Amino acid sequence: MERRAISPLIATIILIAICVVGGLLVYSVFMSTSSTMSAKGQISIEAIDLVKQTDGTATFTITVKNTGNKPAESLTVKLAEEDEQSLQVKGQAISGDNPLQPGQSAVLVYTPSGSYVVGNSYNVVIQAKFSDGSMFVKTESVMCRFG
User: Cα–Cα distance between 61 and 54 in angstroms, integer?
Assistant: First the structure.
């Protein structure tokens, strides 16, 4: 009987296909491992507003979103010279038992005690502490407007 083997061209194509599949597998494992190792905590401001009413009182509103990939265990906001205020998620203060998960937003609405002038800008400092102990601090400014 006559023995026949596959042609060298087909054998080369099969070897190339095996190498490509192996390379894609290694790439996939590497990328999933590196994304886990590069976990970061980050906060972004979705909305911020300081409105002075006709009676002289002011209302400060801020919405903050966890845009990182770690839960935030504390999140505070300080407007100008006011005391720090804690944000809430699901009606409760953000804590280790009630963290701000990645992708979630938290809102703070309160009446500051200071006197604010329409047209002036005031600094707002947002400070977040994440589940691994890392901190993220962001400073933003808000202009007081008449409401």
Answer: 17
List the Cα angle 122/144/41 in 5-degree steps.
50
Burial 122-142 (b: 16+ CB within 10 A, else e): bebebbbbbeeeeebeeebeb
> β-pairing, 92-93 with 72-79?
unpaired
C-alpha closest to that of 107 among 45, 142, 64, 51: 64
- Tokens 């100008």, located at residue: 80
Strand, coil or helix: 39? coil
Predicted structure pTM score = 0.73
Q: pLDDT digit string (tens) for 8-28?
A: 899 999 999 999 999 999 998
